[in-house]
Amino acid sequence: DFAWALCDIIEQIDQDPRGNRSHRRQYAELDFTESSDVMIFERRFGWVDVEADWMPGDEPPLTFGHSLLRREARDFLHDLIADLSDMHDGLADNPV
């Protein structure tokens, strides 16, 4: 679920057609289902700041290049699907 959600978050903060040239801030939140914790993603230009509500207030956000974060999120999802397919016979044949 986390891998899918992370890819979805990246898509949500990539709605501006100007892409990395956009000065407009784009926000998305990732809510965890088993707690009230939230991760906040904010994109401006080609950078994404990632914060979480459990971080100390004086701690700066983690900052990633948008294209790097997009690539790593997709790689994470593909690796996870490949690992699960290796562990469970027939999963890779599932058309869904």
Helix content: 25-40%
Mean pLDDT: 90
Q: What is the number of independent domains?
A: 1
Please state the structural category: alpha+beta
Q: Which features characterize this protein?
A:
4 strands, alpha+beta, 96 residues, 4-stranded antiparallel β-sheet, 2 helices
Structure description:
With 96 residues, the chain is of the alpha+beta class. The chain has one domain (2-83). Helices cover 34% and strands 24% of the residues. It contains two helices and four strands; from the N terminus they run H-E-E-E-E-H. Strands 1-2-3-4 form a four-stranded antiparallel beta sheet. Helix 1 (2-12) packs antiparallel against helix 2 (66-87). It is globular and about 45 Å long. The model has no long low-confidence stretch (mean pLDDT 90).
How would you briefly describe this protein structure?
The protein is an alpha+beta fold and 96 residues long. The protein contains two helices and four strands; from the N terminus they run αββββα.
